[in-house]
Amino acid sequence: MSPARRSNPPPLRRRTARQAPVDPTFPIERSGTIPGVAAKKRRGFDPHTFLATLGEGRKFVLFPKKQTIFTQGDTADAVFYVQTGKVRLTVVSKTGKEATIGILGEGDFFGEGSLAGQFLRMGSATAMTDCSILRIDKKAMMGALHREHEISDLFVAYLLARNIRYEEDLVDQLFNSSEKRLARILLLLARFGKEGAPESVIPKISQEMLAEMIGTTRSRVSFFMNRFRKLGFIHYNGGLEVHSSLLNVVLHD
């Protein structure tokens, strides 16, 4: 009699632990540290002090109001860091039409396209106010990014934030009304939502420039600015004073 066949046991099933869904808005630290502690460590790093100790290839430059920092078509051979003041970024089309693509303030980099193989400036940079700018040669900046992890982390974080801002600008342009776009630009200029106290009074900026930035006409900007003033969202007092209540325009459906 042939021996009874042993039936092969069913393959063992691996039990996989079900992972709880992750809230994408919650800051997760790869190192496993508590987000609050890591944030305190990051705030302990002073980019002003570090950038000032780069050594050769960097220099401080003072630009008076309305002075050109670089012009579209110039050689892209340096990165700039705003220590104080406001800088306006513009581009000019082949037909001569100028558009404002950004207004930068303290703690912002610009001219970083030189690090990605850009040989000529794609736009121009002009001081909107008296500015203190740190100019860093391309070679010196590349060396610092490879050599110093802190400046590399700072710079990458800045570029990611800038990319997110561009995506938000695109969504804003596609889906929001010109009134909401204007309110958002004013809040960004006043640096609401960024670390530190917001700047309630922003440098003088023309309605034509605001119209360029949000893609509408000057008359529409004038209409909305008058409405914001009557509602108490903004106030003119030696400059444009922006109140946090302007957020109501952005958040209102």
Characterization of this structure:
The protein is α+β, with helices and mostly antiparallel strands and 253 residues long. It has two domains: 45-175, Jelly Rolls (Sandwich); 177-253, Winged helix-like DNA-binding domain superfamily/Winged helix DNA-binding domain (Arc Repressor Mutant, subunit A), CATH 1.10.10.10. 36% of the residues lie in helices and 20% in strands. The chain has helices spanning 35-44, 47-52, 138-147, 149-175, 178-189, 207-214, 218-230, 247-251, and strands at 58-63, 68-70, 78-84, 87-92, 98-104, 109-110, 124-127, 131-137, 201-202, 234-236, 240-242. Strands 1-8-3-6 form a four-stranded antiparallel β-sheet. A four-stranded antiparallel β-sheet has the order 2-7-4-5. A three-stranded antiparallel β-sheet has the order 9-11-10. β4 (87-92) and β5 (98-104) form a beta hairpin. The protein is globular. Mean pLDDT is 77; it is low at 11-44.
